[in-house]
Design brief:
Layout lengths: L8 H6 L9 E5 L8 H17 L2 E5 L23 H18 L5 E2 L1 H10 L5 H15 L1 E2 L1 H18 L18 H11 L9
Parallel strand pairs: 1-2, 3-4
Helix pairs in contact: 3-4, 3-5, 4-6, 5-6
């Protein structure tokens, strides 16, 4: 329940020496430091000590790059993105919180909550919180404008990643080159005219 003091990676890895069986040592964003040979060696030693003592070391971060020296000792667990139902419940919590903070000056159109949660699908809870908070501060309500704003902001988040491109639903698939098998499958799957993305 306490907020730990930030410390360098070497100090964090030495915590294993005083840990007890069943303890969990969580290291936040250690991966950039693991490029250095000294930290690779310290991590190997810490993992060996943790195994002997029954201690679990958890490395937490987004851009993980596991050194090959310890790859056999580490298991990667990727967390799934929240479901539409999770997002809807979370958006309701955020709306309630902002309604209290802004002394009732926030209105929520119930019919837009589902649309907003669908617009936020594929995002983390943190990204969703930022989008919903931005909409609430800007409009003081969750309505169609908030949903459009969330879609615009989601496009920006996707583009920033540099890997994916965001395409609006309902565009003409004839503008997409190749992929004939995929186009036919989409047409059969959604029971629509060929070359039309599902809305």
């Amino acid at each position: 329940d306490s907020q730990p003091e930030p410390m360098e990676l070497d100090g964090a890895l030495r915590l294993v020496d005083n840990a007890s069986t069943g303890d969990i040592l969580a290291l936040l964003d250690p991966f950039p430091a693991l490029d250095a040979a000294i930290f690779k060696r310290m991590l190997r030693e810490a993992l060996a000590a943790a195994r002997r003592k029954g201690v679990c070391i958890v490395l937490i971060g987004g851009d993980w790059n596991i050194p090959k020296e310890v790859q056999d000792d580490i298991r990667i667990i990727e967390l799934a993105l929240p479901s539409a139902a999770d997002l809807e419940a979370y958006i309701r919590q955020i709306c309630k919180l902002y309604a209290e903070k802004l002394a009732g000056k926030v209105t929520v159109e119930e019919s837009c909550i589902g649309a907003l949660s669908r617009a936020c699908q594929g995002l983390t809870l943190d990204d969703t919180k930022s989008l919903v908070a931005f909409a609430l501060v800007r409009y003081r309500k969750i309505n169609g404008d908030a949903v459009k704003l969330a879609i615009r902001e989601k496009k920006q988040l996707v583009k920033r990643g540099g890997v994916l491109d965001y395409e609006e639903a309902g565009r003409d698939m004839s503008q997409v080159g190749g992929l004939a098998v995929l186009k036919d499958w989409l047409a059969k799957k959604f029971g629509r005219k060929p070359y039309l993305l599902p809305a």
